[in-house]
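Hello,

I think I submitted the S-adenosylmethionine job twice by accident. Can you confirm which output corresponds to this input? Input:
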Amino acid sequence: MQADEEKSYDLIRRHLLKARGFDISGYSRSFLGRAVRKRVGRSGCRHAMEYVALLRKSEDEINELIAALSVNVTDFFRDSGAFEALTEQVIAPLASLKIGLCWSTLRIWSAGCATGQETYTIAICVAEELKKIEQGGDLVVRIQGTDLSRAALNVAERGMYSEAQVKAIPKDILSEHFIKDDSGYQVSPGIRRMTRFSQSNLLDSPSQKFVDLIVCRNVVIYFSRPMHDVLVRNFHTALRPGGCLMLGRTETLMGPPRRLFEAVDHENRIFRKSDDEHAVS
Ligand SMILES: C[S@@+](CC[C@H](N)C(=O)[O-])C[C@H]1O[C@@H](n2cnc3c(N)ncnc32)[C@H](O)[C@@H]1O
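Support: Only one job matched these inputs. Its output is below.
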């Protein structure tokens, strides 16, 4: 039984890598075991080997398993200092620049947005900044949240959060940008208008183009080195010249793709797309 289970995990690992480039070889055995057992039960399979067969023929089941393996932990203003730095060093200058240009749009990609708290945090930072700028309200802002997990995106699209989920939000921000009702706190229409959500795999060719800023926090840590390289190259392609990338505080750019970016603020993991053409090759 034990040997069968081990064999099935190995087959699952190989299949996810081949089918989606999703590498779970770095995941702990107990974490992988919990996620697989959960999917075996929910999919109606009797054992892990039967589940391997299902996985081989069902794209939906691959999505479900990847979602179970992808930790959706998130929060509003997660690591608030990083968002202060992002606002000061990237959002404020970008907003001022764009206001000065007619018909321009500020494009931000919140990649691996989970249940939307990060995407709405960015939107609130932008809204607060635009309040300070004369004619700030005229700027078109498009913040695209993407994730692999459909279940997480459903929560993001609804934009409704519990008392416990909003506790990290400063009181003045909460009263200005959320509407409280019996079900919880709903993100205000003004903030929701800036945001869109869609499902996509970060390892596929980028769904976004000419983006001014990509925020991708606490996602790269799940990726193996080859997948990290694919992701960084995808981000480079999606950004407009001079666009910025923000990673999580424990993440960084590694190996050759590091040359595609230069550090703006190393502590807060903010990088700018390098304009050195040789870096791209
Ligand atoms: C820990 S959450 C991070 C959420 C948010 N960025 C934050 O820092 O609070 C990681 C998210 O990455 C998503 N994810 C993992 N691998 C992905 C992939 N290949 N493509 C898209 N999203 C992915 C997971 O579904 C999960 O929602």
